[in-house]
Here is the input.
Amino acid sequence: RQSCSAEPGLMTATDTVNYWQKVFETNGIPEARESSQYIVSFVLGAKTFQSLDSKSLHTPLTALQQEQIQQLSHKRLQRMPVQYVLGEWDFQDLTLKMRPPVFIPRPETEDLVSLVVEEEFQKCENSALCFPVPVPRPVILEIGCGSGAIALSLLCKLPQSRVIAMDKEEAAVDLTRENAHRLQLQERIHIIHQDVSHSSAKQLLLWGPIDVIVSNPPYVFHEDMASLDAEILRYEDLDALDGGDDGMRVIKTILSLAPSLLKVSGSVFMEVDPRHPNMVEHWLQAHPELLLTLHAIHKDFCGKPRFLHIQKQSS
Ligand code: GLN
Here is the structure.
């Protein structure tokens, strides 16, 4: 017996995905199928549509489920990013609460976390004269923590680390705090509501000199802001993306502050625009007093130069 997609009461998960996909397509909503699949599987309590078994796919949904799907789909029809529609999103191994206007973590940023983790384990191995190899115990500062994605992932991957996470937006600080509590990581994170351009070293040295500064700063060139997707422009805090005329406004602020915060041979790991590695290299050459060296440039999964590893030299 075929279920009838015209009658909501009999629509299965598959029918419902197809139905909303059509509605999204008709209304010019990008990623129509993925959006529909995310919403339907979320309401059915599954992470992905692909993970639903054939019974769940072919059982008619309840009226309540249909209503929930309809409510969420109407948000997506307003171009709300699916991460805000669902109110949660995965980053590395964590499920984080999401809500507008706090910046949604992008998949490429997961690699920024991995670079920091690898470097910290590498340092321990290099310095180990004895067995067992000591575990990394870095003090990390995250500048612009947003939802807390980077900070909280680092706390999980580096179980002896501590993180100071700061953001100039109260909504971001609140969300980081909420996510930290949900993941029971609140003991190892210190969250500060502050703009990095108004910060003094003293306030950030509560646990002594910093081993690693990590940041996904706003780095979009101002002239490129207008061409961002409607999802971003309508819902996300644009201050988390707009890096000023050369995209480097906050990058320069972070690098200017870094020497007074870092231990000797401490590191800054930053996500940037692919045009930035050269620009940052020149800027550092023009500012030898900062004692910072561009140590490595790493590519993202699209092959674009995306991550900078900068190190503090010995004076
Ligand atoms: N890559 C991001 C985006 O446009 C920009 C992130 C940023 O400025 N930090 O989605």
Notes: The chain is about 40% helix and 20% strand. Confidence is low (pLDDT under 50) at residues 1-6. The chain has two domains: 8-78, 91-312.
